[in-house]
Design brief:
The protein is α/β, with parallel strands linked by helices and about 190 residues long. The chain has five helices and six strands; from the N terminus they run αβααβαββββα. It has one domain. Helix 2 packs antiparallel against helix 3. The longest helix has 25 residues.
Length: about 190
């Protein structure tokens, strides 16, 4: 019966909320959500003295961080959620966690798991192994061994453009689609 339920979950026809406990064996110890700071775009605007673009980029980056946190606060409850800035991704890959992993309020997290976690973000995948599959933004999942858990990214479907969870810049390629529910559906397939 559990196999059948997991197939329904994977197909997206049954949510994990409907069968509490059935997914416990797949539950990660924690989720580390990468926040898009637009660091490179901000630095470029500073160097070029593009004040208007700098202000717009900062506004967009802050809005993406807000909707990302809203999404995970309201839609993900399988395990604790922590955050880190994209500028610290390489440090995290090297095993540096202290001062990098943050609570939702931005304070440094001190009591978080060092294994059995998943790193997730909305964006382009680290690796793209399927030439027949178009490269696009989506849910990217990386395991605690710092390996991408899927061949590419996972398309985000079935969301409403609610401003609390969705953001799209008017001028730049800066956006966020809610990924927390898609993550819950994807965990059994990792």
């Amino acid at each position: 019966m559990t196999k059948h339920l997991l197939k329904l979950i994977a197909a997206g026809t049954l949510t994990l909320y409907a069968i509490p406990g059935a997914i416990a064996q797949y539950k990660p110890a924690a989720i580390f959500v990468m926040l898009n700071t637009e660091h490179n775009r901000v630095n470029k605007a500073i160097k070029a003295k593009w004040d208007k673009e700098l202000a717009e980029t900062r506004k967009d980056a802050e809005a993406v961080i807000v909707v990302t946190k809203n999404d995970f606060r309201d839609h993900y409850s399988l395990s604790p959620v922590y955050y880190f800035d994209d500028t610290n991704f390489n440090k995290l890959k090297q095993g540096t966690y202290d001062g990098i992993i943050k609570n939702e309020d931005g304070s440094s997290a001190t009591d978080f798991p060092r294994n059995k976690f998943l790193i997730v973000y909305y964006g382009f995948p680290e690796t793209h192994a399927d030439p027949d599959f178009p490269l696009r933004k989506g849910l990217v999942i990386i395991d605690d061994k710092m390996k991408q858990a899927t061949k590419g990214n996972i398309k985000v479907r079935g969301f409403k453009r609610n401003k609390k969870y969705y953001y799209e810049s008017k001028h730049f390629d800066i956006d966020y689609k809610p990924i927390a529910r898609t993550l819950i559906k994807s965990i059994p397939n990792i």
